[in-house]
Design goal:
alpha+beta, 4-stranded antiparallel beta sheet, 4 helices, 4 strands
Length: 138
C-alpha cells in the first residue's frame, strides 16, 4: 500500500509538472535543446505548435525550416547556445536574443513571446547570420 501511494504521488507530481503553462524560458529552452540535438525541423515545429495562430501557416513554417537547413549546411551544426538579451517590452510582450555557436560563425536568434488569454505563446522567430538583431531595441 505504501509503495502504491509513493508511485501515485510521483505520478501526480510528474503530471502537474508536465501540465504547467509554458513560459518564455521553457519554450526557448526546449527549442534550443532540440536544435542542439540536430533536429532543426522538430525545433521549429515545437516552437510554433504552441500558438494556435500558426496552425494554418504550414507553408511559412516549411519555408523557415528550409532556410534553416540551408544555413546549417553553410555554418555546420549548432554546438552551443548563448543568451544575449531579454527585454520586457510590455507586461505581455517579451523579446529574447540568443546566438548559436557554429564552427566559424554564429547565428543570431530573435524570439518574441506574447502573454494572452492562453498564457505565454511564442509569437515570432527570426534567425540571421548578421548582427543586426543583437542589442536592445528600446
Amino acid at each position: 500500500m505504501r509503495r502504491f501511494m509513493v508511485v501515485t504521488l510521483l505520478a501526480s507530481f510528474s503530471i502537474c509538472s508536465w501540465a504547467a503553462d509554458p513560459t518564455p524560458d521553457s519554450i526557448s529552452s526546449q527549442f534550443f535543446e532540440t536544435l542542439l540535438k540536430g533536429d532543426s525541423g522538430k525545433a521549429i515545429d515545437s516552437f510554433f505548435e504552441l500558438n494556435p495562430q500558426f496552425k494554418d501557416k504550414g507553408q511559412q513554417i516549411q519555408l523557415m525550416k528550409s532556410q534553416l537547413t540551408g544555413a546549417l549546411q553553410i555554418y555546420g551544426p549548432a554546438t552551443a547556445v548563448e543568451p544575449v538579451l531579454k527585454e520586457q517590452l510590455a507586461t505581455s510582450l517579451e523579446r529574447r536574443v540568443y546566438i548559436t555557436k557554429h564552427e566559424f560563425h554564429p547565428l543570431q536568434w530573435e524570439m518574441y513571446f506574447y502573454k494572452g488569454k492562453l498564457g505565454w505563446l511564442p509569437d515570432q522567430l527570426l534567425f540571421v547570420d548578421q548582427y543586426q538583431v543583437i542589442g536592445s531595441k528600446k
